[in-house]
Design goal:
about 425 residues; Carbamate kinase; single chain; 2 domains; alpha/beta; VC0802-like; globular
């Protein structure tokens, strides 16, 4: 499939994949509107595979109920529980499509052939065997697939983590050889910042895969990072647009939204977006040689996956207690926080003084994203100066080829986003040569 996707005048009759998020499925009226949009796509001559998320806040409500019963629910049982939300959505949407005269059939992740590894709550897709989906599409049916879920090679139900329905959609598009993959939600594309925080945020017409991945990893509620990884590997163009917008067709090139593809025209060194993650934990530890191995083993035992990992070892003497480790944990993916706190307390009680692990819970992360953003130190220096002039103290800084992240006081996180957006996006500096 061409990464250029469905340009105007694309030949009709191919397979398309559409994904509808929870806000688009939040109640009977919205489900009817989604069904109507699907039927219009089908009437244009396309074979349609639809991927759905759970209705509205169903997943959050199910998770909250589980947390009222246990502070650290078993991850396997969480998968069994949370995967029910998408099953409800797929069945209701098929009912609505049939009421409009369509012929639809629903499949769970396992019935769709989505095979994952055996990690619960944040599994990764390792293979898609869409034989049943292909058979039903060939019979002229609309196939509705439950997103966010699959089955491991051990025949266990698994879920794919936050935004996993996006991953399901892109993986299915790749397996089916679809013409394009359309991600539909209640917003008309990807913005340069959260419009609820930054009123001046702009809709981005185009992004490349790397920028979009960094935005997702940095906390933006945009496309799922693993979904973008799938698209990048297979050259799939992803179109993010509002459910209320018309379905794709002959005039697709004129429809608003954001397209994510391999090359997005942008000056190197310019910032595409400023995003934030509010609910993070900052873990730091000081100890003797081997500190990193000890701490990472503890985190792995608690299924606590960190990011922005840093270790500093100024001395080669094993008896010196000056090895320092720091990393950021996303609370959203930390289902066993109580178990982690207990494990850290036990570690500190048994560790030889002064080796200790501490966790900070007062910070948030704000990130500037853009291709070639760190080709020089210009953007890093300007952003740090901007925060410092506002009296916002950066407690940590991390960079990649496409990102600069500052850890700041959570209470001032939104202010940091607004100030950096003004600096980089509303009044951008000249691009790096």
């Amino acid at each position: 499939m061409s990464e250029h996707g469905p340009a105007a005048g694309t030949e009709q009759g191919g397979i398309v994949v559409q994904k509808y998020g929870g806000s688009s499925m939040a109640g009977p009226d919205k489900i009817r509107a989604v069904a109507d949009r699907i039927m219009r796509t089908r009437a244009a001559g396309h074979a349609v595979c639809v991927v759905v998320s759970a209705m509205g806040d169903t997943t959050d409500e199910l998770l909250a109920t589980a947390k009222r019963l246990s502070a650290s629910p078993a991850r396997r049982e969480l998968d069994m529980l949370l995967s029910a939300g998408e099953r409800i959505s797929m069945a209701l949407l098929c009912i609505a499509i049939r009421e409009l005269g369509g012929d639809a059939i629903s499949f769970t992740g396992s019935q769709s052939g989505i095979i994952t590894n055996d990690r619960h709550s944040d599994a990764r897709i390792i293979e898609v065997r869409p034989f049943r989906v292909q058979d039903e599409l060939a019979r002229g049916k609309i196939v509705v697939v439950a997103g966010y879920q699959g089955v491991s090679y051990k025949k266990e139900v698994t879920t794919l983590g936050r935004g996993g329905s996006d991953t399901t959609a892109v993986a299915m598009a790749a397996a089916l050889g679809a013409q394009w993959c359309e991600i539909c939600s209640d917003v008309d594309g990807v913005y340069s910042a959260d419009p609820r925080v930054v009123p001046a945020a702009r809709r981005l017409d185009r992004l490349n895969y790397e920028e979009t991945q960094e935005m997702a990893e940095a906390g933006a509620r945009v496309l799922n990072a693993q979904a973008v990884e799938f698209a990048k590997e297979r050259g799939i163009a992803i179109y993010a647009r509002a459910t209320a917008q018309p379905p794709p067709g002959a005039g697709l090139g004129d429809v608003d939204g954001t397209v994510v593809r391999r090359f997005a025209p942008r000056q190197p060194g310019s910032v595409a977006a400023v995003v934030s993650e509010r609910d993070v934990l900052y873990l730091s530890a000081t100890g003797t040689a081997g500190l990193a191995e000890r701490v990472l083993t503890l985190l792995d035992r608690c299924d606590a996956v960190g990011k922005q990992f840093q270790i500093h070892s100024p001395s080669t003497a094993p008896e010196r207690c000056d090895n320092h480790l720091a990393l950021v944990l996303s609370r959203e993916n930390l289902h066993g926080e109580r178990d982690l706190s207990r494990a850290i307390a036990e570690y500190n009680a048994s560790a030889r003084s002064p080796e200790q692990i501490s966790i900070g819970d007062d910070l948030g992360a704000v990130s500037a994203i853009g291709a070639g953003i760190n080709a020089t130190y210009r953007n890093l220096l300007a952003g740090s100066a901007c925060l410092r002039e506002a009296g916002i103290v950066a407690r940590g800084v991390a960079t990649s080829s496409f990102r600069i992240t500052w850890l700041v006081e959570r209470a001032r996180l939104d202010e940091a986003v607004c100030r950096l957006h003004t600096l980089y996006v509303e009044t951008p500096s000249p691009p790096v040569p």
